[in-house]
Amino acid sequence: MLKLGLLLLIAPILLLLGLYFWEMSDVRECTYAGGYWDYMEGVCRDTPQPFVSLLERYPLLVNGGMLLSVAGTVMCAAGMYIGKR
C-alpha cells in the first residue's frame, strides 16, 4: 500500500509540472519572437491575448491530479501505520 501511495502522491504532481513547463517553453518562445500566446488555442498571435490559467482550461486534470495526490498521502499514512503493527 505504501508503494502505491507514493506513486499516487508523486505521479500527478510530476505530470502537472511537466505539462506546465512544456507550455511555458512555448509561451517563452512566442514572447521572444515578439508575439502573444493564446492560451485557449495554444498558438502564437500578433495581438495581445488574455491569460487563462491551467485550472480554467483543464479543471478535471488539475483537480483530479490533486485528488489523486491526497489519496496517495492517505494511502502512505495508512501503509506506514499498518506496516508498524
Protein architecture, described:
- With 85 residues, the protein is mostly helical.
- It has one domain (2-83).
- The chain has three helices and two strands.
- A two-stranded antiparallel sheet has the order 1-2.
- Helix 1 (2-32) packs antiparallel against helix 3.
- The longest helix has 31 residues, at 2-32.
Task: Please write the string of helix (H) and strand (E) elements.
Answer: HEEHH
Counted beta strands:
2
Task: Record the strand order, biggest sheet.
Answer: 1-2
State the helicity in percent bands: over 70%
Sketch the major β-sheet.
Answer: 2 strands, antiparallel
Terminal CA distance reads: 14 Å
Going by helix content, strand content and strand pairing, the class is mainly alpha
Outline the low-pLDDT stretches: none
Radius of gyration, CA atoms, in whole angstroms? 18 Å
What value does the average pLDDT take?
Answer: 92
Shape: elongated
Strand content: 5-15%
Short account of what is shown:
The chain is mainly alpha-helical and 85 residues long.
Which key phrases capture this entry?
3 helices; 85 residues; single chain; two-stranded antiparallel sheet; 71% helix
